[in-house]
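#data-curation
PF: Archiving a pair of folding outputs for the training set. Convention for this channel: one message per protein, sequence first, structure tokens after, nothing in between. First:
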Amino acid sequence: MKKFVCLLVCFSSALWAQRPEKLNAADIYQGLQKLSKTTSVLYVAAHPDDENTRLISYFANAKHYRTAYLSLTRGDGGQNLIGSQLRDQLGMIRTQELLEARKIDGGEQYFTRANDFGFSKNPTETLAKWNEQDVLSDMVWIIRKLQPEIIINRFDHRTPGTTHGHHTASAQLSLKAFDLAADPTAFPEQLKYVTVWQAKQLFFNTSWWFYGSQEKFAAADKSNLTEIDLGTFLPLEGKSIQEIAALSRSCHKSQGFGSSGSRGSEKEYLEFIKGDKAFQTNDWNGVSERDNILKICNDLIAQFDFKNPSASVPKLLELRSRFNTLPESGFRTYKLQELDKLILASCGFYIEVVTNSARMSPGTAFEASLEIINRSEIPLVLNTISVESQLVTKLDFPLKPNVGYKEKLKLRLEKDLPYTTPYYINANKTDGMFAVGNQLDRGLPEKNPAVIVNVTLGIENQTISIKTPVVFKTTDDVKGEIFQPLLVSPQLDVAFAQTSLLVKAGKKQRIELAVIPSSDLSETTVRLQAPENWKVTPEFIALRDLKTGQKQTVFFEVTPQKSDNTVLLTAVVGDNNEAALHRTALEFDHIYHQQLIAPAHCKLVVADIDISAKKIGYIPGAGDEVADYLKQLQTEVVVLDPKKVTRESLSTFDAIITGIRAYNVNKDLVGIHALLLDFVQSGKTLLVQYNTLDDLVLKDFTPYPLTIGRERVTEEDSAVNFIDPQAKVLNKPNKLTQNDFLSWKQERGLYFPSKWDEKYQTVLSMADTGETQKTSGLLIAPYGKGHYIYCGISFFRQLPEGVTGAYKLLANLLSVSK
């Protein structure tokens, strides 16, 4: 029988959902089928979007197994198609997208502490940046906690170098974790909460892609493969497994993975890697109450009344009594959670606890509206309402059929309540790993909500406990009823206008800050911490009568010293010597609103950089902040709408630059393509940042032939060689040296062209360790009187990080025709 040592490791994913769950009769029937099963499956891969949503949907909805996806990272190192957010903020978005996906396909979601540091070409490089033992520990922890019989790897452990290094590493580590989870000497500190666990089978989810072609796969020996037909149609859902999977995958909007579902027979293949090849699932095997439990489950399924789900409640309560006789364990707790959810859903039970404030600071007193209703004839009694350990109300109040119970709860946030911000993002994280000290937190997508209301219900002679988060609720005239998490925020949000700023030594720089209170404040002060020899005026600024939500803008003047230096400027409020806090809001319609709380810093990059292009047009792509940082070069930057571009309007610019992946996402570029080439011919510069070879809106967007490839240089500290040291773009108006390629972030560049016309001039060469030199990261072609530039250099990462050399290179490129 499955066992856990401690119930503390069990948790309900429902607490992470903000909108109250409303199960229909089909959902309840599906839940009954899952209740009769004890098999569990863990799918393992490296990133958000790596998971095979078809298999997850199949196991969760057709086989009714408990199914989970373990993504080693949160996808922090990728690109973003829906905004300019990168790194930590992108990881937050992708975490929420995964949670939304699992709501659709029926799986659960977990992570390790591994940080997605960017593209990696082999597992050796990956494990040099990740802490292998910490990642293994987290994988073992999830295996011991979920106790899956079946583990499935998305990737092959035997083929390093053929795919992303994170991919191969995820499979290699999974093989180790498969054995270590059963070893009591491995990570023994976990055994305070869980027991060792030996999964029965480990598979590799192979496909024709891993064989090189469909023809090679068709001819291959499949004796070690298990074939699964995904083409199950679920009448209660009105969808096939593939259609459910497509809806799930379409949640990955930041990666542009909108998918169309398919129907009919479709095969997936699992290659047996290790374990017990003869293992067959046997539900409730080894449980003393097995026969009784299975009989009740089968009766519930056979006798379920779709028009009156409450008719199942007596047998569900009988089953609950059987569950309670089982030894105390995490397995029992999980099954009881699922059973209680079905009992309440069968009663048409509804509960919400809402407030009309989206954000509050610790210590705030507030009112929350509680609504409870029993929409069945089953007798329910509302026994108690409490918050945390404090009893609010003891009622013993009968919930009459279809008569709501409502109450206003007077609540207060604890003064030491942590802010709502990702628990894994902190000052101790590295490029390769997040730091999470508490064992019980490891693996969780996010921590529990700020305030949870506990309700106990009496039903016959049993008691059901319900945990409900306090959430923000509003009604939008267009979108209707909206639920969002209650966000605990600092009393003051202090934000620099720019988080990275290019400045010149000895020249006064105006620094702008916004101060936004989350509650009324009579007075405070704001000041800046800077190096001792820097002049900051005024010394501080006093603020009075601050009103909730009203922004006050303040200005300081800073005189930087010492050129080619980077300094962190810190905002401080009140008498505290610690950094003020800044709140970054992430608000998208397809995920719940998030926020990141971090110290209010501004990186000042002290450098003297010239640019000859005095007016630059920027055509947006998939989302980056390059245009904002270009303005720091003291040049005029105008964001252009291609629909409004004319030959006359273009003539006023010295250079045009297109955003990342512009030719993948901006269809309006097709209409002005000829105008842009004429612009170059007239003596101007067009700089095209990287695009991918998939889904180009215009196939031939270059003046001379060029084929986009998949090559990239991922080692940010790789040597950069000057092919022609006398090249204009390396010398004017700024002299570039090897030092300008130090301190780059995450990568040099990506999607370098694989073929290009001889009319393009190569300028730089670079390579990852052990690879041949790549020369197409920067290609410059004289065209007419001007210059066309195709650039795979990742300016979109470097400029926000304040990389001086990236500023210099970009300034030179945009000035080349001047």
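PF: Second:
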Amino acid sequence: MTESGRSVEPADSEGGTDEWRGDASPSVEAAEITSFVGRAKLISETKSLLRTARLITLFGPGGVGKSRLLRRLSTEHALADGFPDGVWVVELADIPARENLLAAGCADQLGIGDNADGPSEARLIEFFRQRRALLMLDNCEHLIDDVRSGQVPALLTTLLPAAPALTVVTTSRVRLGVSGEHIVKIHPLLPTEALYLLLDRARAAGTAISEPEYPLALRLCEMLDGLPLAIELAAGQLDVMTLREIVDHPELLRLLVDGPYEQHHHRTMHATIKWSYDLLGEREQRMLTLVSIFEGGFDLEAATSVCADNGIDTSDVPSLLKCLVRKSLLLTESASGRTRYRMLELVRRFGLQITATSGMEPEIRTAHAHHFLALASRARKDWFSARQTDLMRQLRAELPNFRAAQVHFLSANRTVGHGITLSVDIGASCAFVYAGVLNDSRRMLTRGLERHPAEPSMGQLAALCLISWMAQIQGSEAAGAAQAEAEDVARQLGCSDSFGPLLYSRGTRLWLAEPDPVRARDSIALMARAEEAFREAGEEGLEFMAALYGAMSTVFLSGPEAAFAASARVLELARAAEAQWCISWAKWTCGLAELLHGDAKAAAAHTQEALQLQLEINDKWGPPWSLWQIALIALRLGDYERGARLLGGARVAQRLTQTSVLGMRPFLLLQQQIESTARQRFGNEFEIQIAVGESLARSMDEVYDLAKEPFAAAEDAPVASQHAEMLTKRELEVAELVAKALTNPAIGQALGISSRTVEKHVENILLKWGLTSRTEIAVRYLRDVAPANG
């Protein structure tokens, strides 16, 4: 098992925060960019402690190497063997202390989608309840208010008892104070280890320290208390200063002070950073303080935007960033073909302190917030294009900065509208649907609405419509309340029949939640009106989404001709835009149309193509849906063992991503129809094979490989028998008597049931076959079902 982390250059120090970002994943085999110095005894002691302890804190001052030690531990093969269900590393530095987002952030990095109602803690418990696993939480201190309080202690106090086979290792500058916590103190490097680190980092910087200089180098290591991060920073100056000049520098001489262990090393680390800062030129210093405003990293475009508003020429930004990288004050990382910059957390805090005391903070935060407001606005306009997946990944990576920007806008009455607009633009881009973190989008929308003034506005209405739509596709009961509030605001604003987002959310709710098939069919016309409204507003992305959802509802609620035409149309629209995420969903819809109205083998081909594309673009929302649909296709084709296993795998995939396919009525009914026949024919073995599929899903790759296998060349079930299988035995009997022109009372008398029960059976037949009248039932039965029954 490997980690999908990003490479970093230059490497992080032995201390400071880790050099990876992105989703956590089981045990890490990532190659280290720089050598790992010392710590053999600590690693051995910690591994030994892991045999008996369930909670270990790697404890020490900033810059001492806690994060690097944690990462090295996570790669130990012997350690991984002791935790067969995975070693999982979660980075907490970017999780803000201002909100209770720890559990959601952990779930996100673990690949557990944040897409359902209910506390994130419950999802973590569900994930780890049956797992013999090791969870590593890096950089906890800002989420600990005091001993035994704060987000980290609260989470572990709940999680550890609920997941009895789980072991947790944390890194922190303060103790957690949780019952059962074992402290492993991380001390500075020994003199020989510190010297080796300095020699290694000097070589990496292009400067060789000769053997006669070793005593001087040892002196420097002593002055720096053997703190790995401090040694990194000092080595970063060797391209412009000699070793003697560094050692003789007055700022470093002041590091040799007495005091308690933690206070002494804190002063040493702070003074080292200040010394490195003081050696920078004026423009370089300004650059460092400006980019410290970013949370979770930043790219060149963001840095240029903030700097341009604060006195740095845009042409100078790349060279200034390179200087900070060379001095080990800034790290680079590559993600999805984009270069991002990140500051070590200790350096970032230093920069923020300077920003706060200089009086520059308001202007910098305003520039930061407006950059991300503009980014969200551009993404909303451009996401339905060949750049779609790149834009979605970029928006996902900037989530910490979007949160910070919204907090800034919502802090003043005059900019509350910007805070709401920011959340609406991000939601309209579908980036957080793609990323499988719908609740993050809903949280931002809700946060904005909480600050909205009493007077209704179009921004408020757009936010409510997005909340309703998102809650509906999550299968959440919150959709009804949000839609009702949106309808009320729309009436006040006089746009109930013309506002695209309202028509879209109203149509989605009608299709997915309305039990009456006749009323549900009105969703098709609503989606068409929404599509037209979006087209007139120049909203190409939302215009496509309305067409897509209109096609899906048409597949369920209309006949074959309309279903095939609508699904083919959305595929044509997506291909014309070269929008890969949209293409995958259009292919999925074509598969759905074939499953309900046509050829199951064609349905398999479409859906397998959709799944392959979703996996290639790292879509977090789509694969569980494609897996579920392929499972139903396998059952429809009579491949009951494979279909049952895929259903089991789909269950696990939905739990991991918190995707509630069966929380939406049409999809629940479809599975019940197809699964009912499979259970009758496959018997008790069906549930056994579902359990086999769930066990396979410990490695989702195995399940997806099974889903992508070509279906055997056995002859398909004829379309006629597929239509018959969609109905229960009793519904087929009712359809036969409808075809004989019997009234409901006559059918009830013939079958020994009430007229009301007959009426419900007729409604179900209309819904399942996508018809509108009894005459159409008679025609379908006589044309498709009766000939197959002889």
